[in-house]
């Protein structure tokens, strides 16, 4: 693996952390909101954000695979 | 509720963090770069700042320097998304500056916003009379007794095993009473015999060789306050009449002095001996006992108030955490072991066990590491002696059938390696006879031998001594 490759990988990992953090912290938020009354709608919205973030993360991993195949 | 400033260029993170902080009951303000953070800081004051390490217009550390240079001591938590920066950050962190790595969960925010200091306050406010911890029924009963006696000027005698916290109880009584003077502590066992007089009553200059200056005794030091005589029963009995005089006349005369000085203080004394022990072993004059034990308080050993162990353990750990600026915890499994153990050394032993586990603590999972066996060498030795006594005590009921034999305590012969079985047997026979006032039938029954054998043995012993 060249230095350039390592740099790209590090950037990808960093980018992937962003949606992962979102997933984790949104889950925390659900835990907090669930204790409140009438929170159903909010929880659904947060769950949607989480799903969006997982897709984002999945796409990033796909780019990683494709970049590996290109070389 | 606290006002929190969040500085992060990751909009999603910042917004999420904001919502979590708000759900935890705090107010949050948002800034996406250093410039807007500076604006916030100019217009209002914050109780806590969460700061990203790398921001579009510079490093978060620059802002830390600026804030500190302005003399603002607001606690700051650095937040980073790069775990690799973690170790570098941890070296930078010191008092008032902490760090977190993303993802940050609700507990991280919670801990950052209410650090252990708040927890320490919690137990301090739980402490009764400022010093005593425990919510067990036994302790609550004692709190009531302390309240009652504090309102009077009666002398108190504290009785309890070593390590139960007699000094703390003395402090509690002192705190609860509305006296103006100080609490003066004296350990009667630690004063050299010849100096007891001078220590308690003071001395005049030149009273004896080495008395270069006048000395005020502890009774005078405790004027209008409380004098705590720890280990009272270790005071040599021949010194005790002097003490009695003070207690009866409320005056002291300094060694080498001529003028009696009026004294006024409550005397709290403490001993780790039981009343029976005091009565039988002649360690305390009876008249002194009555003077000092106007109000005796028995402090229960820790094993009789096990429900207080978690509270005490947490309290000791918090003290260590605060001192060492650490965040160690006690694992649930260890806590139940602490509760199960019978603590022959009482609270003192518990405190030392926690301290030892703190020193051995695991840095990775932030928990205390306890020894497989808590028992100190002292405790082990004590237990072996008790075990041996228990075994011996169980002998008479097995051999003796009459209820009277059961009720008699057999004096234990001195067992020492180097003695022959015959010697021990002989000692046991004589001591058993003594305990039943020479009744040979009863003694034989207790010893588990026939009366004939007992006579034979005694005849043989007499033959030996005559020859």
From TrEMBL, chain A:
Claim: Transferase is one of the keywords in the record: yes
Stated name of the protein: histidine kinase
EC numbers: 2.7.13.3
Record's keyword annotation contains Transmembrane: no
Catalysed reactions, as listed in the record: ATP + protein L-histidine = ADP + protein N-phospho-L-histidine
GO molecular function per UniProt: phosphorelay sensor kinase activity
Keywords: Kinase, Transferase
Protein origin, superkingdom: Bacteria
InterPro entries linked: HisK_dim/P_dom, HisK_dim/P_sf
Coiled coil regions, renumbered to chain: none
